[in-house]
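Two quick folds needed for the group meeting slides. Do the first one here.
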Amino acid sequence: MEGTGERPFSSEPGPIVAEELRLLARTQEALAEARGPRRGARPDGEGLRALRDEWNTAGEEDRPALLAQMHEERARLSRARVDTLPDPAAPYFAHLRVRVAGRVRDVLLGAAPLLDGKRGVTIVEWRKSPIAEVFFSCEEGEDYEIEVDGRVIEGKVEERRLLTFEGGALASITVPGGVLLHEGETWRFEPRAWAPRLVDPTSPRRTPETRNPFITLDAEQQALVDREPRAPLLVLGSAGSGKTTVALHRVAALRQRFPEVFPAKRMLVLVPEPGLRRLSERILEGLAVEGVFVRTFEDWIRAEARRVFSWLPHHEPPDPPFAASRLKRHPALFAAIDRLIDEGTSAIARKLDRLLGFRGALRKALEARDEPLLRDRLRAIEAGLARETTGEKGRLLREALAEEQDKLARVRGDHRRLVGDRALLARAVEASEGDLPAGIVEQVAAHTKQQLAMTSEEAYAHVDADRLATLDGRTLDAGTPEETSGTVDVEDYALLFELLHRRTGASATRAGALSRYAHIVLDEAQELAPIELRVIGRALDPEGSVTVAGDAAQRIDRSGHFRSWEAVMEALAVRSEPAFLETSYRSPRPVVEFAHVILGADAPAEVPRAPREGADVLRTITAGEGHAASVLCEALRHLRADDPYASVAVIARDEPSARAVHEAVSRGMPCRLVRDGDFSFGPGIEVTEVSEVKGLEFDYVIIPDASAKVWPDAPEHRRALHVAVTRAMRRVWIVSPGEPSPILPSEEELRRLGKLHR
């Protein structure tokens, strides 16, 4: 690791080791007593007291059963008590010595608390205790001030030590300037930094001026911007190659050169996440382009669907099952829609046969039709059988067919059947050829059933509204399993437009029509499902153009079902040969090569060109989450001093991990937990998850949870880590609490790659 920034270690190992061993011995004694039976203490718990009361009044025949229940309850209480105690194999990970009001206190940090005043043992929960913040935020010799129960307590840090254990025995002691390592019967001192210095010595420091996101285009990129305005453009390239830049510069060029053909209000930019939406808006603003719609796909299609399908429920479920999203976005659902159209055709034919007395002739004629659109099947019968049928019967048939065509835009019933009928869902599973599990049918059907159920407000509509009001202003079903009632999934919006098109051949109802645009940009298009791409394609004017940008190696949505770029363009109903951007401008060469190896079998044959050199990727393995939090805070504190205007993204795998990391890091220094794309795009430390950072960039990227448990070896995790790492413009630091992730490149892999491609 790089320089320490800490005062040098000058003491002999002996006194420190002896002190820590004495403290460990006292802790182990306190733990042994806490885990054993408490002499003279009466068992606690309401259940146990109730059983004792029953014992006092029970007959002899009932007492054996009560005695067995009392034993079980005592055992349960004992287990609950033991489970809240520190782990004897590693009872704590840090030792903090402070001086408060002239007295010295030793505080240990661990996952669970323990207090034994007789032995002078104090273990506090590192995630909750106020004194733990002192360990993460202060260095030795510094004064501190914390608030505890409304009182301000001041003190001074005298010692800070990180410790590791092996089988309950002390294995290492990290002190300022190095670490004491237990080897056999001896201890030795090894100079080592507490945490690495992250600052990139090869790059100049940031200045207070805001970073300029408006990159100058190279000749290759400019040529793509200058393509024929009505020609579709498919831009592919690795992370940081300028795909988004090209797409937005093309919007600016079309707007400025052909304002009458491409007015701002008829141009649409679709991105997957709010963070990329905000960045795209900033870039367009810098390019002097105003009025262009920049939306996430979800926000756009939600607004379109709620205008066109006025009957839609007002709410979406707070936590829909992944199974529903996976199936509703799967291409195999088209097979279920085909069957639904066929069944709708048969239903119309049977009804008209019965009403008009065609004795099966109409049904036979309709069921012989195979046009994809139900409207076209009815029109074909109108042009054929209806014209051949003379007199009153022919007139009635033509009127009946016209009436059925008027009803085609009513897709509500078909939608309910599509997502709730087990036979139709099973047809999709069958068409997936093993990609969808059979059990998904029951999951989605049950979810749909709950969505179609009445809400409590509907069920109790006869009750005075004031009596149904809740104290927190939420609905009656909020926080209950019935919260899903009366909702619609965001994935249903594309389904509704697909059903509407398959029935009517159009994208309009009496309430409204799908918006049409002269130019559409699809950024990170690999994340969109085929059924969503079809809706976007229908929103494009017949004479309009489209810019599609993406990278298959960056797909991280598990329900997106990307197959190929040919399939993407086919779903959009446009044709274009791909243009490849092969130079990665964002990240330096060490980051580009590291990210390439992460992809494993999915990596392109060639490593992207990286014209800029830079600092190597840093990697740190810690004994656990507490150690990782300490090292993170230490390194970030130094980075903030070394490069105060740098943007730093701490990118965790998912939302729970991001929240846990933010909770830990915020104990030692200011940082923001970013959700819904609320990035500052400026200096500071922001903690987030991978799905939030598509298309964004930061000076420094830290992966705080790169363990085998959080990042197992699977293609989706490889692609996600690739996305996270390639957000860095300067340097990447990988922190592995516990066993490192198996998808991290080995030093040998990186050396071999360097020899091949340099």
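Then this one, please, same format:
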Amino acid sequence: MKVLVTERIAKEGIEILKNEGIEVDEKIGLSHEEICNIIGGYDALIVRSATKVNEEMIKCGKNLKVIARAGVGIDNVDVEAATKQGIIVVNAPDGNIMAAAELTIGLIFSIFRYIPQAYMSCKQGDFRRSKFKGVELYEKTAGIIGFGKIGALVAERLKACGMRVIAYDPYVSDEKFKKYGVEKVDFETLLKESDLITIHTPKTPETYNLISEKEFKKMKKGVRIVNCARGGVINEKDLYNAIKEGIVAAAALDVLEKEPNFELEKQEYYNPLLELDNVVITPHLGASTQEAQVNVAVSVAKEVAAVLKGGIAKNAVNLPAFEKEKLDEILPYLELAEAMGKIFIQAERVFAKKIEIIYSGQIDEKMTTWLTRALLKGYLEFSVQDTVNYVNSQVLAQEQGIEVIESKTHEGGKFKNMITARFTTDEKVLELAGTVYNNEGRIIDFFGYKVDFKPEKYMLLIQNIDKPGMIGKIGTIVGEYGINIATMQVSRNKKGEKAVMVCEIDGALPDEAVEKLKNTDGILRVTMAKL
């Protein structure tokens, strides 16, 4: 067994592989072409950020069984291409959570006490301390957006500073808030009451531009903001304006929507926020600690060794290790189950305290565990900051306080096989059902409405009053924004009452268009869903 490592990782990770009897070749700095020329002789590939593992490279890796990214994200690996080849893709989702939490705290102190600015002043020979009158954290209100693992670590540390800590996360159970002694509030309350806002959410269609002009206008004058999560969650142009207007007293950003090239000789980066003295920007240091680098190297080394020895990778981001001949059989069901989780959470955007999955017909009982995990993965990807995969999704659901029930019946009705997902929230119980035919997943029940559609990348999920002209209104508005409707499913249970409409569209509809649809007479709810 041979592993190719194309970027430097901590020696502790290399030693783990060697101790397992695995041959390791560290070839740092190879070009894309050079990697493609040699990758066919390796069973595993370990990269960090610089190596772009695209479809061409994956096809050249005819013997690859696992690709590992020694880090949290997976942006530089074509996961879909790897999945088609039956290659497991792994990362290290928990390796830097402490590093990210501690950096957040460091940036909070920096903008409350102007530490970087005072340091630069002293470096320039100016020791006037009157310029740097700070603000204490004690007895102020900290608002945390996103209460996952990192958000909880930050909360513990801010409470130790004597702060009142409130948090907004609609996908986290009340029990978790109580465990950490944090007040659960809605988004509007957090914006209005916080002296400090710190962001710890994933970047999803729902959280992109989560904080923009209208949110800034609701904040306390003098609020301070920290983002160590993902660029794009804050609208940077609107942040600049809010600072100039005096709404935001200071901001600290470790992530930017458009990140610079981190190689100095290639640097041609400009961002207006760099002009502002009360903005601290760091070059994406969230994982840049000695401990985090060791953690991610050790984590991916263990994952690679497990796969090569025939075991299961705990941090697989795509598929469990099925035999290739079984892959074609299970893949449509995995994709269907995951899509069902994504559709529910995007359509409802509410915490489900119980999820019951019922498997009907001839679905192999050996598959159901992975199908359940796939459905939970889809649900959690839009609701937690943690990296969610097929292996950890059940554990993460448990941590969120979700009761998961799985059952099997041989009665499939008119369908050979069927998956039914029943979501229980504080207010209601909603069901989705799907099946697979012609090797293609189909949704056949959408919250009690009979439908038949294939989950697609871009979908409009609409609830409306059943009355003439609704289809025309929707088509006109979507067309105004240059988006084509590929297919449309319409269903009602009773004439003149509520109906549902599912439209497959050729691209993501802008927020402005979604708002226009929401404000159209007769439309009750609109969701721009992305799978």
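Slide caption for protein two: The chain has a mean pLDDT of 91.
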